[in-house]
Write a structure and sequence with these properties.
Layout (H helix, E strand, L loop, with lengths): L23 H11 L4 H7 L6 E2 L13 E5 L1 H11 L3 H7 L19 E5 L5 E2 L2 H8 L6 E2 L7 E2 L4 E3 L3 E3 L2 E2 L4 E3 L4 H17 L1 H20 L6 H9 L4 H7 L1 H4 L1 H11 L17 H9 L15 H6 L8 H5 L12 E2 L16
Parallel strand pairs: 1-3, 8-11
Antiparallel strand pairs: 2-3, 4-5, 6-7, 7-10, 8-9
Helix pairs in contact: 1-2, 6-7, 6-11, 7-11, 8-9
Bound molecules: zinc ion (ZN).
The site of zinc ion has 7 residues, from α5.
């Protein structure tokens, strides 16, 4: 028998602090958990109408849940009132707090909301930092921007959701203890972002696109990326090369982004047939890979997307929510489509 709904409208709720970039669904679930309630019991107890549920196609995967709880103005005002957390504070911490399609002010709408597929991809925040901040081991999904995927204190890289033959892969983080160059690249990324703002995001997204292309088509002589995969996931390096691919190519991505953000010349008139293009030579030297002098490794539209990359106005809110380049991949990434071939199970000959 379902337990009767508590009436929470005569008491103040415990103040559960939202983590920066946390999903609404996670924050409300933690708030409910602090009162030993489920999300729907908490909402019911605050006389918030049960949210309409729009299921996620392909299922919701464990800690990487892709459903987001969008509360309307009335429901948001009620949460703010009973937790005594100002709405401005919730808006600042939770990127999707105000993303409900409101049809009126808080006073005009019956408190309610909707559960629907999230419009942004979420990752799981550093587990050690989460325990330190919340006192709980429960994973906290967050819309971390690309330049926040690394926790330098605990040397973790937040991975997005992955599947293998359609089955969720249970890894949420890569460990960077043996790859200090990835942590150094993170500091360089932050400097790039501080100096160039949203242009740095574009450059990093373009560079990540290129390095991923190169990682997948690299000649056998390329050892740095496979070796890094081995340092991150020694037991199954080939799987980790696909799973943590963004981390594995990250030092080269950030170095290359530092070049691209300055919009290097891509003009071809300086080149004769059979001669390397100056930009390819520069990149090969910068990344210390001779094989990158070969024009075959470059997309035909390289010039176009260096010269005509979109430029964003410096708008703090839009910028804060930028999650390139992970956002381009959609939500769940299938490992076999990234070229990972799982080993065959041993056959039983008897
Ligand atoms: Zn941490």
């Amino acid at each position: 028998m379902p337990r009767p709904l508590p009436d929470l409208t005569h008491q103040a709720l415990r103040r559960i602090r939202p983590l920066a970039f946390e999903t609404n669904a996670s924050f409300i679930e933690r708030l409910a958990g602090a009162h030993h309630l489920t999300t729907s019991e908490l909402l019911g107890g605050l006389r918030i109408h049960p949210p309409k549920v729009h299921p996620v196609q392909g299922g919701d995967y464990g800690p990487h849940a892709r459903s987001e709880l969008y509360l309307n103005a009335g429901a948001r005002a009620r949460i703010s009132q009973y937790t005594s957390i100002p709405d401005a504070h919730l808006t600042h911490a939770l990127p999707c707090w105000k993303d409900h399609r409101d049809r009126g002010s808080a006073a005009e709408t019956r408190p309610g909301g909707a559960m629907r597929p999230s419009s942004l991809p979420a990752v799981i925040g550093c587990p050690h930092c989460t325990v330190a901040r919340t006192g709980q081991a429960q994973p906290v999904p967050r819309y971390l921007p690309h330049h926040h995927l690394v926790c330098t204190r605990h040397r973790t890289w937040a991975l997005g959701p992955h599947t293998l033959n359609g089955v969720p892969v249970p890894h949420t983080h890569a460990l960077l203890h043996k790859t200090p160059e990835i942590v150094r690249a993170h500091h360089a990324h932050l400097r790039l972002t501080r100096r160039w703002g949203p242009d740095a995001d574009d450059a990093v997204a373009q560079a990540a696109h290129l390095t991923e292309r190169w990682r997948r088509r690299a000649p056998k002589s390329e050892r740095i990326w496979p070796d890094r995969a081995h340092l991150i996931g020694s037991e199954n390096a080939s799987m980790w090369e696909a799973l943590a691919r963004e981390a594995i190519t990250y030092p080269e991505t950030i170095t290359l982004a530092g070049l691209l953000v300055r919009r290097p010349s891509t003009r071809y008139h300086q080149t004769r047939p059979g001669q390397s293009h100056p930009l390819h030579t520069t990149i090969a030297r910068l990344l210390n890979r001779r094989w990158l002098q070969n024009p075959a490794h470059y997309p035909e539209d390289l010039a176009r997307y260096i010269q005509y990359a979109p430029r964003h106005p410096t708008n703090d809110t839009a910028y804060r929510h930028h999650t390139k380049p992970t956002s381009r991949e959609g939500h769940t990434v299938e490992l076999t489509q990234l070229g990972y071939q799982p080993p065959r199970p041993p056959t039983n000959n008897q």
